[in-house]
Amino acid sequence: MKMIDLRSDTFTKPTPEMLQAMVSAEVGDDVYGEDPTVNLLQDKIARLFGKEAALFVPSGTMSNQLSLKVLTEPGNEVITDADAHIFYYETAAPAILSNLQFRTIPSESGQVPIDEIEKHIRPKIYYFADTKIIALENTHNRHGGTVIDLDYIKDVKALADKHGIYTHLDGARIWNAHIASGVSFEEYGKYFDTISVCLSKGMGAPIGSLIISDKARIQKALKWRKIFGGGMRQVGYIAACGLYALENNLPLLKIDHENARYFANEIANLDGISIDLRKVQTNIVIFELDKKINSEDFVANCKERKLLLSNVGDNKIRIVTYHQISKADIQNAVEIVSEIMKKMMRN
Hints:
By secondary structure, the chain is an alpha/beta fold. The chain has helices at 16-23, 36-48, 60-71, 85-88, 93-98, 114-119, 150-163, 174-181, 185-189, 215-227, 236-248, 253-267, 295-304, 327-346; strands at residues 4-5, 53-57, 77-81, 101-105, 131-137, 166-171, 194-198, 209-213, 273-274, 284-289, 307-308, 310-313, 316-320.
């Protein structure tokens, strides 16, 4: 039996067709702005979101951090959900790279109540940090792939405009939000000053993210990309994977969502598992184990059965589906989880 890896959609690998697009790519030196495949990808992504420009970078962390860099000055403050990737998983980069501090607010699904956000906006008094950005994440990783409601996004934008604050979207999985909600990328783009998107998760490219904004901010980001060590040369070989993904892999996300929903429904009634099915909206499922079960032991037992899962803390387990995980893989995963849970609950 093969290993079924549900730890993350970052475990996608290029298909033979994507590799062919890669080796066939026309390339140049991107530091000189002369890689035609990179330029094509940047232009296509910018137009897709209704923005003036985009910049190709190696990682989602870099695109998030460049976004913060071009919108702020040292000592500014960013408001975001307490479980946001930009705060939780990016190794204190905002403090290190941009001298920013975060004001985080817990939420149920990644949507901090509007009145709570407003309460946390600093008054314009000299001894307070200036609140400069409200950052959202769509879909929201640590809340289980939840889709942020468009009406909520509009309300956040209205609040930001009222107070003269920028908005940033960590859209690493905005592709999944689009497939699940039907909201166009251009519609999402209307409500954010900067957007970060990732091509190396469910979209299936091996590397690459982009920051999207207006021309002036992207020009500023270009300089900071170089300073951050993200200048790349004949990177059109990688950009070609992103172009292939946009044309071919984007529609496959719907199947990933269906597989995640199937998995969640099948394990929901197992003794010792607690899961909020309302949060299973895209390709991520988070479930909680009974207190008598140690999550590390559970993950280890699954690994012995050739099933890889993520332990995300608080006795919770995460699985993520992607296009190289089949329905049969998910059915096998359900069987393994069921058998292990029955055994561990008896002991």
